[in-house]
């Protein structure tokens, strides 16, 4: 039997405890809705835990991260309350191969900004507009199982370009909004050995994480971001002696050394 994919779902868990409107939509917290979506689609192939801002080390200790293959991140009201030491810890794990799925307003999280090296800012409008997410990479595993070339969210927060991120490795979705704005709403990146998926939908005052298509995409994104490949040697190392000299007789062509 294969080992289950180990996923940690992180949420600052502020809005749900301070707003009755948000608590009504997500009574167990946004992290619970995201975790349920991952379990729904990945089933017995995944082991999911949750972590929140107010836990010691924000729930992201060295031990937790060492036992995490993919981390999902949702934040909005408390980005600056995340300790820099924890951000650095997460960054090192991403470099070493841990996947990272960044959701909605976590575009402004410390960890995403640090990994991107840009402001990661954008235009926004909270007007409950319709959003149409167009699939622009239909062969990508992140869109597996979606039924059509696009899907819609009836009421959501608008995000518009310019989105200040580095050129993505892949653009999976582009969104259109009623006001005419467009947005690169599904983007992938690689940092070190780690794979990163940014997915736009998810404002706290709309039931976005109860939408069937959004839930499937998040689960697909987690599966895609799982560590792959060989062990990663990212640290600098001085090699005073060859690790494995090439076997066989070393023949020197003396003619190369003769003066002309």
- Beta-strand percentage? 25-35%
CATH class of the domain at 5-119 and 186-231: Alpha Beta
Q: How many extended strands?
A: 9
| Classification by helices and strands | alpha/beta
Brief digest:
This protein has 260 residues and is of the alpha/beta class. It is built from 7 helices and 9 strands, in the order βαααβαβαβαβββββα. It has a domain at 5-119 and 186-231: Rossmann fold, CATH 3.40.50.880.
Molecular structure report:
- The chain has about 260 residues and is an alpha/beta fold.
- It has a domain at about 5-120 and about 185-230: 3-Layer(aba) Sandwich (Rossmann fold), CATH 3.40.50.880.
- About 25% of the residues lie in helices and about 30% in strands.
- It has 7 helices and 9 strands, in the order βαααβαβαβαβββββα.
- A 9-stranded mixed beta sheet has the order 2-1-3-4-9-8-7-5-6.
- A hairpin with a 4-residue loop joins strand 7 (about 170-175) and strand 8.
- The radius of gyration is 22 Å and the shape is globular.
- About 40% of the residues are buried.
- The mean pLDDT is about 95.
Features:
260 residues; alpha/beta; Rossmann fold; 9-stranded mixed β-sheet; 7 helices; 9 strands; 28% strand; globular
What is the fold's blueprint, element by element?
Elements: E1 5-11, H1 15-18, H2 20-25, H3 30-42, E2 46-52, H4 62-66, E3 70-74, H5 84-96, E4 99-103, H6 110-116, E5 123-135, E6 150-160, E7 170-177, E8 182-191, E9 194-199, H7 212-224
Parallel strand pairs: 1-2, 1-3, 3-4, 4-9
Antiparallel strand pairs: 5-6, 5-7, 7-8, 8-9
Helix pairs in contact: 3-7, 5-6
